[in-house]
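Appendix B, record 7
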Amino acid sequence: MDETGWPRLKVADWVDTRDTLHLWTQIVGKVRMAHAAPVNHWWHVTLYPSARGLTTTAVPYGSGAFDAEFDFIDHQLRLRTTDGRSRAVALEPKPVSVFYAQTMAALTELGVPTTIHAVPNEVEHAIPFAEDDTHAAYDPEAARTFWRQLLRAEQVISRLRTEFYGKASPVHFFWGAMDLAYTRFSGRIAPPHPGGAPNCPPSVMREGYSHELASCGFWPGGGEEGAFYAYAYPEPPGYADLAGLPAGARYDRAMGEYLLPYESVAGAPDPDAVLGAFLRSTFAGAAELAGWDHQTRTR
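Structure tokens (predicted):
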């Protein structure tokens, strides 16, 4: 398998695994949220692509710390503490209810007992984790390929971070919508967000969108092989009609954002250049139309 290119994975070929993995990441993300110090825009709850999968990074607990990492090479959820102890939960076909019980038990064994809001967010049918025997698929190769997609997307998005002088987020994985995201801010307060995400309180959205922003990222939907996206909040007049975007990019009026199918990037002669052009052009359009201060734009 080519480890240097853009890995290909049709959404239809792994949708059941995707939906199960989405819920597993919500469980682990909520564990981080239960212990990490709050950060504006919910940046304290995210996961991060690592050399083996997705990680919480170190989370404070007592006088030490712990971490949790989805290892998509050996297919284990690895739980480790700073006193040298560890536990592992196998990533294999199993119901969400079993994964949830095993993960909570492993944390308790490590001396990190954790209580979370054990119901998924931002999904239409929110089955409590302890009762979810429906989602149970796990294709190891598909999970590994998705992780490699996240790594490639992160590499390109991260190179753009140095171009912006203003406040900006890390490149991180939000388990609510199962997307890798990066956000820039103008510095101005935004109007209160109206909410609307399924099974997600409006207060969560208001905190996440408290300030004017332009965001982009990647998620396993919106295209045959997933899609890159870009949007602005609040959306400035004319943003839906930007010119000069890469081939395949389009504004989705129902979603209120630009989409560029993953396959349009991966199949291009220079995928990095195509994705970079999409991200730069959508941000430049948002900043110009909204009148962002020149000092917060780009090099």
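Remarks on this record: The chain has two domains: 11-131, 150-296. The CA atoms of residues 53 and 71 lie 5 Å apart.
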